[in-house]
# Entry
Amino acid sequence: MSNRKVRARLSAALAAVAVLLAACGGEQDPDQAGATGEGTEDGETAEAEITDTLVVSYNSPVEWANWGQVLKAFTEQTGVEAPSDPKNSGQTIAALEAEAANPQADTAYYGIVFGIQAAERGLVEPYQGPNFDEIPAELKAEDGSWFTVHQGAIAFLVNTDELGGAPVPECWEDLTDPQYDGLVGFLDPTQAAVGYSVMTAANLALGGSLDDWSPGLEWASTMRGNGLALPAQTATAAVQQGEIPILIDADFNGYKLANDEGAPIEVVLPCEGTIAIPYVMSLIKDAPHPDGGKALLDFALSDEGQALFAESYLRPVRDVEVPSEIADAMLPADQYAERVQSPDFAEMNATQEAFNERWNAEVAG
# Structure
């Protein structure tokens, strides 16, 4: 995508927001609405300059979800610098709250539950870019305060060279066997979106519900006694290096290690079932570089951005073509259909505080 096309997409988005505000009775600020003009030969609107030269996107570590390549391509195509940021979802929310009076970030990326929280706490503002309407309704806020950019699923990432003779586990219950003592880990569920998703998946698979966390917490307590590791930060390097031979994490991280890094990683969707994990983005309220932030959000939902995420074995939120070599490197689609469910994400958000309290009392303590 050329700089010109990015600017044109930004102009269209700003004009759409201006129309929405006018319809709601608000006064239009011409400095914020952006210029409109005659269409070009290829159907684009008149250009609007991106004056920002920097965009700060919280929670964009280079090794996660192909963010390194996404940010690099964005900078190459727009000229806007976009450094990576190593925060996880929980750390991102904490930073946004601490900086609310003087925001330092322009966009944020996090698990869907954290995106809902950010909107509820007034940390983000609505934005609907050119491809917003293509996102399914259940995967976005109606006003655009958060929206999904891609999805994965919770899976076992198993380093088959580091099992010490134990078989590859196929089920949640398998992991409690003493033969897996000290071999299993996942991100702290009170700090990272993927960790909370792991516990949600385990709890639902073992007979619990979002109103009853007992089956999952009992499983986690048994796992703590079996040497469970609970890192706070992205841990894909730990499974690759054998430090955590069985990492319960996003499926796409395992596919990337196995197919792109040549690591001896097998991806397993547990036999009792698991859940989808949508990841969402938002524009930060009073962002210091709003034009750059909007341009990055547009890029994440563009054909180019969605294709780059797919290269990291993520399922795009838009209906874009996934290369056959990527699809062939993943588990069969029918296994996803049989084993992966989408819980009520709003209810996941509503019950997270209660979960955290029980986790701290019954597992962490």
Observations:
- Confidence is low (pLDDT under 50) at residues 1-48.
- Residues 3-23 form the longest helix (21 residues).
- Residues 152-277+331-364 form a domain with the D-Maltodextrin-Binding Protein; domain 2 fold (CATH 3.40.190.10).
